[in-house]
Design the sequence.
């Protein structure tokens, strides 16, 4: 079972990569997003060889991680978007708007 998880997650003991498989799995319903998932066990960002076209920051992202990603995006001239929930819309979907870099 995964400790400190908001939900109980059971990991088979005979599969050491089960946690990574769960984190990296993405339903085909979301394949249009062409999302990258980076998993790192250190405080520094891993070396990214291919430059992403954009970074989308989640609604519930911590301020610390948000600041780190914004700094990274600014230094590497990567467009950044912030996700938000449109409370007026009748559709259940996330929206985004570009975050303008401060000069």
Sequence:
């Amino acid at each position: 079972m995964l400790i400190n998880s908001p939900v109980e997650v059971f990991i088979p003991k005979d599969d050491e990569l089960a946690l990574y498989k769960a984190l990296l799995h993405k339903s085909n319903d979301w394949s249009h997003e062409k999302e990258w998932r980076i998993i790192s066990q250190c405080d520094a960002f891993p070396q990214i060889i291919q430059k992403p076209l954009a970074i989308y920051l989640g609604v519930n992202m911590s301020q610390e991680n948000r600041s780190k990603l914004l700094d990274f995006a600014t230094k590497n001239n990567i467009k950044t978007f912030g996700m938000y929930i449109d409370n007026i819309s009748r559709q259940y979907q996330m929206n985004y708007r570009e975050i303008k870099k401060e000069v």
Remarks:
- The longest helix spans residues 63-75.
- Strands lie at 54-57, 79-85, 94-98.
- The helical segments are 18-24, 63-75.
